[in-house]
Each structure stands twice: as structure tokens, then as C-alpha cells.
Amino acid sequence: MSDPVLIIGAGVAGLTAAVELADSGVNTIVVEKLPTVGGNALDLYKAFPTDDCFYCFEGNRWRPGIRKCFYRSALIDQPNMDLKINSYVEQITGNSGKFEATIHVGPEYIDAKKCIMCGLCIEYSSAFSLVSPQCQPQAVTYDPDKADEGDKKAVEECPTKAINLDAQPKKETVSVSDVVIATGYHEMKPVNVDEYSYGKHPNIVTQLELAQILDPIGATDGKLLRPSDGKPAKRVMMVQCVGSRDENYYPYCSKICCVYALKHANILTEERDASQVSVVYMDIRTYDSHERYYREARENGVEFVRGRVARVEPKDENELDIIVYDSLLDKYLKFTVDLFVLSSALEPPEGMDNIIDSLGLNVASGFIAPADLVSENEVVAGDHIYACGTALGPAEVPESVTQARAVASKILQNRK
Ligand SMILES: Cc1cc2nc3c(=O)[nH]c(=O)nc-3n(C[C@H](O)[C@H](O)[C@H](O)COP(=O)(O)OP(=O)(O)OC[C@H]3O[C@@H](n4cnc5c(N)ncnc54)[C@H](O)[C@@H]3O)c2cc1C
Ligand code: SF4
Ligand code: SF4
User: Fold this and answer.
1) Which of 159, 166, 221, 392 gives 20 to 30 Å between its CA and that of 211?
2) Residue whose CA is closest, atom 3 of ligand 2?
3) b/e map of 106-115 (b: 16 or more CB within 10 Å)?
4) Residues 325, 382 within the same domain
5) pLDDT confidence band for 68 (50 / 70 / 90)
């Protein structure tokens, strides 16, 4: 019997590759550093191009016609998937279809098979929390850095004895035939981009943070509120290309931020009663059919200002004055807003250097680069080594899913 396939990262890309392979009878080991699967897509509320909830979105594509939670079905229906959460790959040795991977697993403080998500432990100690009601695995998480005196009571009272605070991390060494890198992206926190004052006023947020505000299961129950005082945010300004297309940070275009900024602008005007939404841009890049978001935004009265933000001046604790140079009018304009949203660059995640070095992979701007784009598919990163989704660079979900399927198909072909 062949060795299993190692998949690093359990976002939509990694999970799609895992499910496609597991469905075809291939054993997979999926290593995820966080306590729950889903990656960045978990926090995004509605998804372009279908405007579905992110769970159903992927489920629809995976098994058309069935509105079934992808993550839940992936984990419950697939006996060939071995998911290791709170885990990371320490090193990989070997080559050409014979690899040894050392995996740092756990510690597993909560037994996800036993936890019934009753929430009792959360009442006793702030170290326990629920990432999301739909999290997979369906279990609470425990953060030892927040340990307090309520922990002991939580252990005693847990009705299913699911908590083990003495759990220790384990090291496992496994033989694997192929390595799939699906470690995704990170949204840059633009603390060093002075002109936007990120981190200096609570009402300056990134697009990912806005998505969490818009999420009905988020901290504000989906209400568009100012972080500073919890009052409705009526006037919103977005600025594009923060840290992208900028030689001081990332020279590349992050590709999808124009589309999701417009998706958010439409949600603000259509669903959340914002009275003024402005977008400051250099170019609007809505590729393929996503042009419809741009058209809808104009129909919804979103104001587009071509130019650059010159500076941000906090007016008081709750309002901001944004000074914008309008390059079409050739003059400076002042806008007073409740919320200032930065479309920040998508950057490679940290912590991949040892794997990239040990496998001798190519990189481009920090993301995994194809081994040979001329004669091979872009998902081939080396001999029996693949990458898919945003590990290859900024991409939307459908593209990530297509690449993950290409990876699965390559591995299956090699095994014939
Ligand atoms: C604000 C915003 C809105 C968006 N809206 C849309 C939209 O409407 N429609 C759309 O199609 N796309 C949208 N996207 C893009 C979407 O988020 C991505 O296409 C999708 O999440 C990519 O999935 P992925 O699996 O490649 O990466 P990720 O979601 O980043 O998942 C990677 C996983 O790998 C894990 N990981 C990372 N490093 C390691 C490691 N060393 N070891 C173990 N695990 C690791 C991470 O914890 C994570 O779970 C949006 C993005 C943003 C920022
Ligand atoms: S008390 Fe036990 S079963 Fe209930 S949520 Fe906490 S860990 Fe899960
Ligand atoms: S997609 Fe739009 S906002 Fe994002 S970097 Fe490219 S041009 Fe700028």
C-alpha cells in the first residue's frame, strides 16, 4: 500500500485536495496550525462570485446541488483523512516520492470527539473559547496563556470529561509519498505605512477586520458599528493598494482586493444602511465577471475618488478627517468619516522557511513558485511536491479549489 499524502494547511485549498484524494481512496495527513479548519475563508461572511455564505459556497461547488457544509462533511464523511490540528511540520527529509516528515502535534487539551460544545467551561474560565458556532472540529479551544483559577472547575464540571490540561505535545515521524503545500496567505497589518495611521485610531481597520464586523456571528452581530464607541458607522471610506504595488512593501498587485472591497461597499450600501461610502483608488481591477460588483457599486451610489490618501487626521475619538489628493481634479479634498478601511496587501504566511529550504523550492515574492512553468502545471512545485491556493499567491476561492483539484488529479495520475 502506498504511503499517505501530506497536506500542510487546512484552508479551502488544502481541504479540497484532501477530500478529492480521500474520496479516491488515498490516505491523507492534513496538518493545520490552528485549532479549527477553514483558514481565512472562515471570517469572510459572503463570498463573491455567488454571494453565498462561505461554508455553502464551497459545498455547492464540491457536490453541486447539495447545500451541505463543506467542512463538516469533509471531516465526518472521510475516513481516509487524518487531521492534525494545533500542529505544524518541523522538517521534511527525503525526495522523489519517499519523504519523512516530522510533525509537532498538539497538545490536545480538548478531545474534540468528546466535546459537545455545551459551553460550561467558557463560563468558568476565559482560557476556553468557541472560535465559531460552525467551527470544525466541533469543539471549544483552550489557550494556556489565558489560564486562570476557573480552569480546575471547568475540568471537574465538563459533562463528557473532554478536557485534559496536562496534555503534552507529541512528535510524530511519518513516511509520505507526496507533499502538498496549502499554507495560504496573511493579510498584511499595515502598521508601518505611516500615511494611513493604522493602529493609532480604533476606527481604522483592514478589509478582513471589516468582514468580521459584517459577519452576523461576529462581535457586533453583523451591525456596522464604530469600534471606538459602538455607535452606527454611517460614513465609510476605503483605500485601495495599501502595501501592494508599492516598492517599499510588496511590488505585486494583490489581485483580489478590488473585488472584495466592492463586495463590501455593496453590502454596506444595500444591507447596512451606510449613508456615504467612498473608495480611493489608483486603478479598479475587477477581472472576469467580477466587473458586476463595480457596476453595482456605482448604481448603489458608491463614490469613487481617483488619487491617493495624503494624510489621516483624527478629528476626535470617533471621527476621522481624511485628506485625499484627487488626481482627476488635481486638488486636495477633505472627507470626514466614521470608519476608514484599508485594502491591505496579501502576503505569504510566516513559518515556511524551513520547509521551503529543505525541499529546495522556488519562491516568488515569498509565495511558492512553480518548479517549471513552461512544461508543467503551475501547481507542481517539485518532484512529488505540489502547492495550491493562495500559497501560490493571491487568489480567490474558485481558483484555489481548481488548483487543489489539479493537485489531486496529478497525484492520482502518478499512482496509476
Ligand atoms: C477581506 C477578504 C475578502 C475575501 N473575499 C473573498 C470572496 O468573497 N470570494 C473569494 O472567492 N475569495 C475571497 N477572499 C480570498 C479567500 O480568502 C482565499 O481565496 C481563500 O481563503 C484561500 O484559501 P487557502 O486555503 O489557499 O488559504 P487560507 O485560507 O489562508 O488557508 C491556509 C491554511 O493553512 C494554515 N497554515 C498556514 N501556515 C501553516 C503551517 N506552517 N503549518 C500548518 N498550517 C498552516 C492556516 O492556518 C490556514 O488554515 C477574500 C480575502 C480577503 C482578505
Ligand atoms: S465543558 Fe466540556 S463538553 Fe462542554 S464545551 Fe467545555 S470541553 Fe466541551
Ligand atoms: S487588486 Fe486592486 S486594490 Fe488590490 S493591489 Fe490590485 S489594484 Fe490595488
Assistant:
1) 392
2) 115
3) bebbbbbeeb
4) no
5) very low
